[in-house]
Write a structure and sequence with these properties.
By secondary structure, the protein is an alpha/beta fold. It has a domain of 148 residues: NAD(P)-binding Rossmann-like Domain (Rossmann fold). The protein contains 9 helices and 10 strands. The strands form 3 sheets. A 6-stranded parallel beta sheet has the order 2-1-3-4-5-8, with helices on both faces. This is NAD(P)H-binding protein. InterPro entries: Ergot_Alk_Oxidoreductase, NAD(P)-bd_dom, NAD(P)-bd_dom_sf.
Length: 255
């Protein structure tokens, strides 16, 4: 069995990838800023990163931060992986990073290009947003008595466990380059997701959609972050809500 290092291995996705790989008998090292014995800040690199990569065959790069620093982290990781003789670098990206002009998406696209030019064997998977991220957004929007949504925007949330399964499979395979996107089973309006969330949580809110300004909003409204042709995910948003909140009504197709 191979030795695999998972960056961001204590996060929402990385933890599940680690569990899948260990269940299949692989030796997995978990790298994060606070996870011993491989506590490393990728933005700083250094000897601790070299030690974490010593003897590693494959890296699954899940570590990321919307607050910035992904490019520096990837640069340090790639340099250390080359020194260590890593065979395969697997990177998880986001559907639409090349179509929606959002700062975080641009950073993810830059990292994709760094991975592709690294000289390592590489695989890049793009996925749509996870169900739990949609819920975190809706949690925040539901705090006021009126839930204000950006008008005309849809989403295609996917189950994080399904993405983890796909990444784990890619990690034990050969470098495959850019693989087909992984998207959730349904393209849904934000309003329909918000109403499903309100039903599942038992909240009562007025829901209002308003147009916004800016290039990023126009990119989302145009559906740049969607992949309807790759709607291969299985778990729907309602099914996720039913498990998380225990109140889902199973009403499957809206908007």
């Amino acid at each position: 069995m191979t030795t695999i290092l998972v960056t961001g291995g204590t996060g929402t996705l990385g933890r599940l990838v680690t569990e899948r790989l260990r269940a299949d008998g692989h030796e997995v090292r978990v790298l994060s800023r606070r996870s011993r014995p491989y506590a490393v800040d990728l933005r700083e690199g250094g000897g601790a990163l070299d030690a974490a990569l010593d003897g590693v065959d494959t890296v699954v790069h899940c570590a990321t931060s919307p607050r910035g620093g992904d490019e520096r982290a990837a640069t340090n990781l790639i340099a250390a992986a080359l020194r260590a003789g890593v065979r395969h670098l697997v990177y998880i990206s986001i559907v639409g990073v090349d179509r929606v002009p959002l700062g975080y998406y641009r950073s993810k696209l830059t990292v994709e290009r760094l991975v592709e030019a690294s000289g390592l064997g590489w695989t890049v998977l793009r996925a749509t947003q996870f169900h739990d991220l949609a819920v975190r957004l809706l949690d925040a929007l539901a705090k006021p008595p009126v839930m204000v949504l950006p008008a005309g925007v849809s989403d295609q949330p996917v189950e994080v466990a399904e993405v983890a399964d796909r990444l784990a499979g890619l990690a034990v395979g050969e470098p495959a380059g850019r693989v087909p996107d992984l998207a959730g089973p349904e393209v849904r309006t934000l309003e329909s997701l918000a109403r499903a969330y309100l039903r599942a949580t038992g909240r009562r809110r007025a829901v209002v959609s308003v147009p916004l300004a800016g290039k990023a909003y126009r990119g989302f409204r145009a559906g740049g972050h969607l992949a309807p042709a790759r709607a291969v995910g299985k778990r729907t948003f309602e099914e996720y809500l039913a498990v998380r909140f225990g109140r889902g009504d199973g009403d499957g197709r809206r908007g």
